[in-house]
Write a structure and sequence with these properties.
With 317 residues, this protein is of the alpha/beta class. The protein is built from 12 helices and 11 strands. 46% of the residues lie in helices and 20% in strands. This is LysR family transcriptional regulator.
Length: 317
């Protein structure tokens, strides 16, 4: 911006003096002191190199040059006010809608509680939630299709910043008639060699299991016996006896308690993982998106039944 017109606020003050006929009245209109207005206007005169006001004990009136400057300045000041009003409207619009994307585990088992608490803070904010696997969730956030996302993958996706808001644990589950149902534990090598009922490639659960097995020197996983995109469908397949599956502890709490699924420990393999909020890298997280992430982190810090407990085995090796 040209240096002589960089301080639009001073031109706005000059217009107020023209309209009220008084530096004191202009000061009251803008909510600042009369000496501050006088100083701003003298600085403007020095910058422009012309006298804008004739000052007297009875008030202040524009010089001919001041009248010209006021006429030229009005459209710029009006445009600045319109810009400010537009920006304020954009902010209100942004804060009235929140687009959230999440991996299936988070979307199905955690976000409903988080959103209920969030709505108590933001009753006027409309929330749109979509769910994918973790890879597609990250793509939504990178593209701007979502304001914030939640993923369950092992690492922060490229191009995004992240904050751990919760944890869960992966659990090997089988149907009650499966040979492993009475085993005390399964070795990681054995797990890697058995076809599982599994989520598709890009799923945070599948990726995390593959990486943990590889880190322990086991793997790659054998190709799935059945690949499904729904956690509910996987659970039903396991209950039906199609094969074992590794799922989030959040997803199987009800079935384990009812006895329709059996949890089988895996020897020497840590499958506890972080659940992360994600947003574009180097972009400040603010407004409703920030508040939802804070809500998620707060809820995760409270006691909750996200674990599982396996009844003592009666037989097996």
């Amino acid at each position: 911006m040209p240096s002589r017109v960089a301080d639009l606020g001073a031109f706005d003050l000059l217009i107020s003096v023209a309209e009220t006929g008084s530096i004191g009245q202009a000061a009251r209109r803008h909510g600042i002191s009369q000496p501050a207005v006088s100083a701003r206007l003298r600085a403007l005169e020095a910058t422009l190199g012309v006298t804008l006001l004739e000052r007297s004990p009875r008030g202040a009136r524009l010089t001919p040059a001041g009248s010209l400057v006021v006429d030229w300045a009005r459209p710029a000041i009006d445009a600045a006010h319109a810009l400010d009003a537009g920006l304020a409207a954009l902010r209100v619009q942004k804060e009235s809608r929140l687009s959230v994307t999440a991996s299936l585990t988070v979307a199905e088992y955690l976000l409903p509680g988080w959103l209920a608490a969030f709505r108590a803070q933001h009753p006027a904010t409309s929330v749109r939630l979509t769910s994918h696997n973790s890879a597609d969730t990250a793509a939504d956030v990178r593209s701007g299709a979502a304001d914030v996302g939640f993923v369950e993958g092992p690492d922060t996706p490229p191009g995004l910043d992240a904050l751990t808001v919760a944890h869960d644990q992966l659990v090997l589950v089988v149907g009650t008639g499966h040979p492993w149902a009475r085993r005390r534990a399964v070795d990681p090598a054995r797990l890697a060699s058995i076809p599982l009922v599994s989520r598709e490639q890009g799923s945070g659960t599948r990726t995390y299991l593959e990486q943990q097995l590889a880190a322990a020197g086991h793997g790659p996983l054998t190709a799935p016996i059945l690949e499904l995109s729904s956690t509910t469908a996987i659970k039903n397949a396991v209950i039906s006896g199609i094969g074992p599956a590794v799922l989030s502890s959040l997803a199987v709490t009800t079935e384990l308690a009812a006895g329709t699924l059996v949890a089988v420990p895996i020897r020497q393999l840590d499958l506890r993982r972080a659940l992360r909020a994600i947003w574009p890298a180097h972009q400040r997280l603010d407004g409703p998106a920030r508040d939802l992430v804070r809500t998620a982190a707060h809820h995760a810090s409270q006691p909750s039944a996200i674990g599982w407990r396996r009844p003592p085995a009666t037989t097996g090796s």
